[in-house]
Structures are given as C-alpha cells and as structure tokens.
Amino acid sequence: MGERYIAFDVETPNYANDRISAIGVTVIEGGAVAERYYTLVDPEAPFSAFNVALTGITPAMVAGKPTFPALWRQLGPLLDSGLLAAHNAPFDMSVLAKCLRHYGIFWRSTVPYLCTCQMSRRLLPGLPDHRLDTLCDCLELGLTHHHAGSDSLACGEILLHHLRSGAEPGPFIRTYDLERICTVKAPSARRRGREG
Hints:
The chain is an alpha/beta fold. It contains eight helices and seven strands, in the order E-E-E-H-H-H-E-H-E-H-H-H-E-E-H. Helix 4 links the parallel strand 4 and strand 5.
C-alpha cells in the first residue's frame, strides 16, 4: 500500500458538466489519508436550479473564488503526484477533461485512473447498489453527499478499505483519453493474442 493515490471529486454548476464549481482532493499515501484539499471554484458559467439544489453551491458562493485556470497551477501538480481515483470516475474524469479543453489547458493526452465504484461492484457484490452513500453506510463512513471535499474523502476511505482487505489495484486501473474524453478500451484477449 505504499503507492500514492489522489482521490478527487468535482461538483458542476449545470447540466453541461463542462465546468467545475467545487473540487475536493484527498491524498492517500502510506496506507492512510495524508492530505486534503477543497475549494469552491468560479465556473464562469450559469448555474441550473437542479445543480444548486443538489450541491448547495450558489452563484453568490463562488463570486470572487478562483477560476479553474488560476487553480490549475496548484491543482495540476497535485493531480500529477499519484494515481487518480474517483467514485464513478468516468464522470469526474470527463468533467476534468472538458474543463481543460474549454480553457485550452494541455495537461496530458491520457491519464491512468481507477474507479472505486467499479472496484466495489467486484469486491462487495452483495450490496443493493454501489452508490457512494450506500457504500459509506455499509462501511460506516461519514459523508456529506455532493460536497466535493466529503465525497473525495469517502472515495479515499473506500479505496483504503479495499486495499486493507487485500485488493490489488492493478486489475482496476484504466486509461482516460483527455482529448477524446473517454476511457480507452483495453484490447480484447483475442486481439492481444493476434498482436502477440
């Protein structure tokens, strides 16, 4: 469990899911929570009533907060410092990719990540579902749902639970294409056999 994991969660202001109104990051290192980071973000985009009700974040709350490009100088190196993890990671990865694209920020072409929702489906198959709040209830973890700081901490603690239970992260690591905004499909066993 010596690897460094960067569990992150984003909240968005509207249905387009291409801007960030809050981000939470929890660093897992040495088998424990090593660092936490949370901030509201000025998304420079309109808010929908649905997202305000879901996240509790209003336009007034983000007024004067840093924009994504201003945060990226700090956020980029932090996300670069370990293996990314998120719960329902394809959503968070897509929001990050769309935000980078909108602001013309090049980070990488692809980035490895793992999804604690996907891990939990395989490792805790008996649950009624594998939503973040369901897993937190099952594992007796605190959660203020749809608060990016709390959600990223819960993701990190779920990951720690699986690692402490003996799970190897390798089979769950996927590659996200930040330019095409999708997970790169692993080659099938048949195709790998033809290529080898």
